[in-house]
Design goal:
SAM_dep_MeTrfase_SAV2177_type; SAM-dependent methyltransferase; nine-stranded mixed β-sheet; methyltransferase; 36% helix; methyltransferase activity; transferase
């Protein structure tokens, strides 16, 4: 646990350092420093029940990195709309994309005031490309699209990234309609990348998540792999489809990657 004296000071009245926050807890699990004592305590309480959450968090970030690498290197994508950005850590979308294609353009979207306070770290860009930050909620896709259009050309293929954000929308139908609205605004040749915590894989994980949702933090709702797959309806899934994130085009290794309770996929709009 980090030294409490080194914890960030609230610089925004919208930041409540007395209540654990999912973005800050996730940052803690990823080894970041942008969290408060209450987040560390909530994160430690979670890992006491389910230590595997750290593996899930890091596997999720690795999945996103492999997605972006595929999108840039194999699909030729140069525009990214990353909604539910979270706090900046290592291997952010713009870092991965612009390392491979310096001209890539990225728009991050989040409504977390702490993310906004750290937006400068996210907005660092190559000279050839661009990054921007939109302060908006995932449940307001029209606002997101209008603001993102200042940086992205929606006449060109764009990758929509929804990483561990749809679980914050309890109603599955509402979550699907938001994805549909966002993808409808993107042209053919665009891609959708989604990963979220999944039900039916690890009962200990589900128990820990239930306890977390009862802790006062903003709830995060797990969905089955089949439910996550429905977000890609009408799109062409890239092989191997919707799988545990560790099994999506894993890097070569001596053994098969373990299955974790986090599923994701990537699909192309035809």
């Amino acid at each position: 646990m980090s030294d409490p004296a080194a914890a960030p000071e609230p610089a925004n009245p919208r930041i409540d350092a007395s209540i654990p926050h999912s973005a800050r807890i996730w940052n803690y699990w990823l080894g970041g420093k942008d969290n408060y004592r209450v987040d560390e305590e909530a994160g430690d309480a979670y890992t006491a029940v389910f230590p595997g959450i750290v593996t899930i968090a890091r596997s999720s970030r690795a999945f996103l990195r492999r997605n972006i690498t595929y999108l840039v290197s194999e699909a030729g994508i140069r525009q990214f709309l990353d909604i539910g950005t979270g706090l900046p850590t290592a291997q952010n979308t713009h870092e991965v994309a612009q390392r491979l294609a310096p001209e890539a353009r990225i728009v991050y979207v989040d409504n977390d005031p702490m993310v906004l306070a750290h937006a400068r770290a996210l907005l660092y860009s190559t000279r050839e490309g661009a990054t921007a930050y939109v302060d908006a909620d995932v449940t307001d896709p029209d606002r997101i699209l209008a603001a993102a259009a200042d940086t992205l050309d929606f006449g060109r293929p764009t990758a929509l990234i929804l990483s561990n954000i749809l679980g914050h929308i309890a109603d599955h139908g509402q979550a699907r309609s938001i994805v549909t609205r966002l993808m409808d605004a993107l042209p053919a040749g665009s891609y959708l990348s989604i990963n979220d915590g999944s039900l039916g894989v690890d009962p200990v994980f589900e128990q820990a998540q239930d306890a977390y949702n009862s802790s006062g933090a903003v709830p995060y709702n797990l969905r089955t792999a089949d439910e996550i797959t429905t977000f890609f309806d009408g799109l062409d899934l890239v092989d191997p489809g919707v799988v545990s994130v560790t099994q999506w085009r894993p890097e070569p290794g001596p053994s098969a990657p373990e299955v974790v309770a986090e599923h994701g996929g990537l699909a192309r709009k035809g």
